[in-house]
Amino acid sequence: MDAQGKGLRRIGESLEQRRRERTEKAIEQENVGRNMNFRKRFLTKNYECNVETTQGFTLQGNSLPIQNFTRIFLAHAQLYCVADTYLTLTLLKLHKTLKNFMLYPTRVGDTINIVRFAYSSIPDRNDDEKVDILRELLVEYMVLEATRVGSTEEFEELPKEDDGFVVDFWRAVSVES
């Protein structure tokens, strides 16, 4: 190849390199904008919790007119008030902790472990396909931190353990797109 041909080849390579850099910058700016919207929504989210479940509960009624159920009724009502209060409080505290959590590469496992716990301990969606509020919080956090956790071995193992997380994760990602 002569000098002129080599020069044209270098110019072509240089132009191709600039095009790639501009494309990468455009993609990065688009992702930053998307991530900022997600971050804003995540940081300003307000949780209201009303959880209802009857798993493992066998209804016991009275069989005689002398059986007093006042203590039983009050116990259920009091438990409801305590649970509702503490459920909201625990979600609020977890949300604040995640907002202030510095996700170091060595601490990715901490977040993966809570996702594992939530997806192994909490029943799947109810009939209206609504995701549990704790799962929703954790999925949103994982989407927010996807660039930090997505390439780790621990994160890559999650689909093998529970496909519910994968479905919820990609639904959240697609909402952001």
3D structure, described in words:
With 177 residues, this protein is an all-alpha fold. It has a domain at 45-52 and 81-176. It is 71% helix and 0% strand. The chain has seven helices and no strands. The chain has helices at residues 3-44, 70-100, 108-121, 133-144, 146-149, 153-161, 163-176. Helix 3 packs parallel to helix 6 (153-161) and helix 4 (133-144) packs across helix 7. The mean pLDDT is 77. Residues 10-24 have a biased composition (Basic and acidic residues). Residues 1-24 are annotated as: Disordered.
Short description:
The protein has helices spanning 3-44, 70-100, 108-121, 133-144, 146-149, 153-161, 163-176. The protein is mainly alpha-helical. The chain has a domain at 45-52 and 81-176.
Gyration radius (Cα, Å) is 25 Å
Class per helix and strand makeup = mainly alpha
Strand content: under 5%
Main sheet makeup: none
Shape assignment:
elongated
- Sequence stretches where pLDDT stays below 50 over 5 or more residues: none
**Head-to-tail CA distance between termini:** 47 Å
* Estimated helix fraction: over 70%
Number of strands: 0
Encode the helix/strand succession as letters. Answer: HHHHHHH
Helix segment tally? 7
Would you tell me the overall average pLDDT?
77
